[in-house]
């Protein structure tokens, strides 16, 4: 899941994964519908943290120190994982 075409191509060519561009589709919904029959994935990894792309309002609030992080990547992870699945968060949320 990314929005940079070269990263999506690399992931597909190198690892054979299904690339998902989050600028074009809702990533969590796409993954759940197309890979798990609406069950959700077994595990997700948020390796980005607060640096994930968010809305303009989130960016402004973060820069003004009114909000610690956007959490958009983490929210996508939680939406995509199945009930009882694993959410790993090595990304920075500080």
TrEMBL record:
GO terms for molecular function: metal ion binding. Its cofactor is Zn(2+). This is Glutathione-dependent formaldehyde dehydrogenase. InterPro entries: NAD(P)-bd_dom_sf. Keywords: Metal-binding, Zinc. It comes from Acinetobacter baumannii. It comes from the Bacteria. The keyword Transmembrane does not apply. The keyword Metal-binding applies.
